Amino acid sequence: MASQTAVAVPVAIQSIGIPVILLSAAAFQVTHRLNDMAAAFFSYSLVEQVSVLTILFSIIFAAVSTSHNGDLLLNAFKSPSASSGSSIPYPLQAIQAAATDKDKFLAVYPLLKQQMLQQLSSVDEMPTETTEWCANMMDYNVPGGKLNRGTMVPTVLSAILKKPLSPLVHAKAAVLGWAIEFLQAFFLVADDVMDESVTRRGQPCWYKLPKVKMIAINDSFLLESFVFGIIKLHFGNERYYGDLVALMLDVVQKTEIGQLLDLTSQPMDATSDKSNKQIDLDRFTLQRYRLIVKYKTAYYSFYLPVAMGMILAGIRDKKAYDLANKICLLMGEYFQVQDDYLDCYGDPQVIGKVGTDIQDNKCSWLVVQALQKASPAQKKILQDNYGKWDDACVGRVKQLYKELELERTFHEYEEQSYAQIQTHLETVTLVPRQVFDLFLQKIYKRSK
Q1: Could you tell me where the DSSP H helices lie in 144-240?
Q2: Exposed (0-12), middle (13-18) or buried (19+): which is 220, by Cβ within 10 Å?
Q3: Which of 5, 120, 192, 387 can bridge 361 by disulfide, Cβ–Cβ 3.0-4.6 Å?
Q4: What's the number of CA atoms in the CB half-sphere (13 Å) around residue 347?
Q5: Predicted local confidence at residue 12, as pLDDT
Q6: What is the distance between the alpha carbons of residues 55 and 63, in angstroms, rounded to a whole number?
Q7: How far apart, in whole angstroms, are the C-alpha atoms of residue 92 and residue 166?
Q8: In the 8-state DSSP scheme, what is residue 300?
Q9: Helix (H, G, I), strand (E, B), or coil: what is residue 296?
């Protein structure tokens, strides 16, 4: 109702202006007063004539300006379906025919991939082998995950608007969702190199392929560049384009700071021997863990999809974004704790990777909890075995986790966190609660 009222004002203003001036002039002509006014005008001094003309042209200019501003205000309240970019060949029929939200989302990926390849070949003059490399690199790293982050953008927008999205609006929301998935691929490709991981999403890490190796580092940079290329191509003419870019830049920086916190949670010794690295368990505090989770995971995995949906919906209230940020960070911490638990206890066939947090000497939730519960003798076991690429050492750490009943501790934490999030959701008024409920449903008691 508020938007209809806001639109009615510029429409009413726009209906006057020049037409009123023309009608007034016609009325003067009919009553023969126009000749009298002309005679009176030429009887004035030059200074008086200039003053009258100044007033007249000011009125005309104001009418035209008001009419133009009315158009701008009308455009501001248009549906996203009327936004620029409708000339882009979005797969509207495929979206219309798709049976699930994930299928609708997947229908948009080929368009974005082709646009990035077209940019490389036509604008950047790259040879065929370069574009083929990038095509393979994108297919290997971008669309293979759960796609929860990306699919949430159309879901959030639909929840805020309280109606199903048209195929065109769904397509544009999906584009931003895919920008997040490209961002996720950038982070994961780089993260796997830094962590020396073996598998990702049920297949060898990209850098592990014999033809790739350290080229993966440059590929991660390319994936990041595609994020901003996609946003510019599809939203460069939108009034909120600057908001999208600022949001993405802020989240990228926060995530990279979180990665730095994670990587520097242990001494940076010079040895390349994994079995002989220094460890300092005193650095594994709950405060540091929460900072890592907040910056490395929560912002881009939870707040970013919600904030993008809010921007598309036209929400400008800073308080709404502050509240969304607070709830999303809570869910992000809960999600990462789950991830740490699954790294140790999850089935590799289900989670799509072999957990290596113990071997990698990670500041994991499990080791933080263990250090809080352990006796001096048990801490000595952790000191001697944590962070070593040795199956026997890993087994001793897992046995200690069992003795400390960390599985039970996790399930208690899960219920407490869920209740805490629900309490915060009771206060949500500026954004539909459904926005956050949908996210929570996806992660609560997940197994992968």
Answers
A1: 148-161, 167-195, 215-235
A2: buried
A3: 387
A4: 4
A5: 38
A6: 13
A7: 9
A8: I
A9: helix
The token pair that represents 273 in the structure block: 């021997």
Which residues lie closer than 8 Å to 299 by C-beta, 6 or more apart? Answer: 251, 254, 255, 258, 328, 329, 332
Residue among 277, 255, 258, 250 nearest 266 (CA): 277
Neighbours of 90 (CB within 10 A): 21
Average the pLDDT over 174-183 and give the result: 98
Q: What is the mean pLDDT of residues 14-37?
A: 49
Whose tokens are 């990279």? That residue is 256
pLDDT in tens, 209-227: 999 999 999 999 999 999 9
Query: Poorest-confidence range of 15-19, 110-114, 124-128, 221-225?
Result: 15-19
Neighbours of 190 (CB within 10 A): 21
Does position 84 have pLDDT exceeding 80, yes or no?
A: no
* Predicted pLDDT at 56: 56
Upper half-sphere CA count for residue 176 (Cβ side, 13 Å): 30
Element at 204 (helix H, strand E): strand 203-204
Cβ 312 vs Cβ 81: under 8 Å? no
Which of 272-281, 381-390, 427-436 has the highest average model confidence (pLDDT)?
381-390
Rounded Cα distance, 434 and 431, in Å: 8
What end-to-end distance do the CA atoms of the chain give, in Å?
42
Compute the radius of gyration of the chain from its Cα atoms: 30
State residue 349's pLDDT score: 80
Four-CA torsion 385, 389, 392, 397, nearest 10 degrees: 40
Name every residue whose Cβ is closer than 8 Å to that of residue 110 and which is 6 or more positions away in sequence: 91
Query: Which are the catalytic amino acids?
Result: 146, 186, 191, 195, 200, 262, 296, 335, 339-340
Q: How far is 204 from 214, CA to CA, in rounded Å?
A: 14
Of 199-203, 207-211, 340-344, which gets the smallest average pLDDT? 199-203
pLDDT band at 428 (very low <50, low <70, confident <90, very high): confident
pTM here?
0.77
- Helix (H) or strand (E) segment spanning residue 203: strand 203-204
Please, where are the H alpha helices in 33-166?
33-42, 46-76, 92-97, 101-106, 109-118, 128-141, 148-161
**Quick one: angle between helices 167-195 and 148-161, nearest 10?**
150
Tell me what percent of the chain is helix, strand and coil, each rounded to the nearest 5. 75, 0, 25
Q: How confident is the model at residue 13 (pLDDT cuts 50, 70, 90)?
A: very low
Residues 293-328 as b or e (16 or more Cβ within 10 Å = b):
bbbbbbbbbbbbbbbbbbbbbbbeeeebbebbbebb
Q: Please state, as a whole number, how many other Cβ atoms lie within 10 Å of the Cβ of residue 107.
A: 22
